[in-house]
Amino acid sequence: IRGKNIYVAVGGYPEISIKDAREHAFKIIQELKTAVEAYGERFLTHSKMTFNELVDEYEKSVLSTGVKRSANTDLSKIRKYLRPLLGDKKLAGMTEADILSYLYALDLKPATRNRHLALIKAVFTWAIRMGYTNRSPALYIKALPEVTSDRRAMDDSQLQCWMEVCECWRNGKPDHEALALLMFLALTGLRLGETRHLRLEDVDWSRKVITLRHTKNGKLRRVPVCDKAFVLLTEQRQHLGDEGWVFPGKGTDNPVAEPRRLQKRLCEAAGIPPFTIHEMRHTFATKLIESGADIHTVKDLLGHSTIKVTELYLHASPARYHEVVNRAMG
């Protein structure tokens, strides 16, 4: 093209027939010609770029700006998976088959693979906009079907046993802040990430309302808390003061680390199944519904973006239906 030789590997024989290779080569030539017309000589330089080099630019221009909330998880995917498996491939030669092979090589759940696909699509969408390429090999790849897992929730006796262990351990264990965090999550149904980043300055002590700034959608959210949760906040204030993290980490300026292993040990000590931290949120939602709260109130308290997400909790609460049918049938 314009006096330059462009070399692209299309596969090996006998996996790819000579006829298929020729057709594939013709398609690539047409794409390169179109790209040259659209982007000029700049594209010829970028056609030699590897996926690793593209990702370098994406990290500098997008992920390091602090704008994208998923930047840390995206960087982790790039470091652990994308670079080792796709990094050496030339952009000009990357195909849909390369992306599919990558996705199916991951020993991960469909939902997690879909997050990887979304990241790859985002990288190529940005690359097209910046003129590094004129196509995305992931464009026509559809997300995998995701199986919704059962939304488990503790029953009243399990929650009581769990709370009793928490209270006991708070008096003698070194994990005071992590235990306080877990108890607060159980009493509010909040997400772990938004609660870890709660600050004492974000508590309205007169109205018993907290302001969440580190939310899933990036929007401020104000949430009233129950009396038990407010007592816990007050106890944190008494030994921490009026400023800083409500649940601080040990010897650092960061909030407490995610206490997932501690949660597992708590469940073992309480003699109950190993409920995850997120299932504490399910427990809170289920108790709200069983207490008669309307679905819009539950949606607002949980911070769901749509009512459809909240409706999933209705199906997870059989006690709610038992009450209705018993009342109907006398």
UniProtKB/TrEMBL annotation:
Keywords: DNA integration, DNA recombination, DNA-binding. It holds the Pfam family Phage_integrase. Signal peptide: none annotated. Residues 149-326 form the Tyr recombinase domain. Gene3D superfamilies: 1.10.150.130, Intergrase catalytic core. One of its GO terms (molecular function) is DNA binding. GO terms for biological process: DNA integration; DNA recombination. Residues 49-128 form the Core-binding (CB) domain. PANTHER family: PROPHAGE INTEGRASE (PTHR30629), PROPHAGE INTEGRASE INTS-RELATED (PTHR30629:SF2). Belongs to the 'phage' integrase family. This is Site-specific integrase. It comes from Salmonella enterica. The lineage of its organism: Bacteria, Pseudomonadati, Pseudomonadota, Gammaproteobacteria, Enterobacterales.
